[in-house]
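Work through what follows:
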Amino acid sequence: MNRLTFFLLAALIFCALSLVSAQHQARTLFVAMERAQAEEKQLDVDWSRLQYQQSALGKSARIADAARTQLRMAPIMAGRTQYLSGIVLPQAAPAPAAAASAPAGEERP
């Protein structure tokens, strides 16, 4: 009976220690999950802020204002427009349509 009592006591201590270890691991994982959720919320806030900034920077009024103030650009006026004449650009030769439609094994005439 003495051995059985010792064996049951050892099993009880082992079960208690494994229960404490499992609870500690669960608490550690819960804290890590809470931190990850807080970081997710912060990243979501940052993403929303960056999307707003991108939309604000991409507005055409802001771009036009930056062109006028920083680059000193001006809108097109008919009186200041200069047209070039006498320049003829070479036209690109069109690709032959027969070469594209012929089957691979046949020759072209």
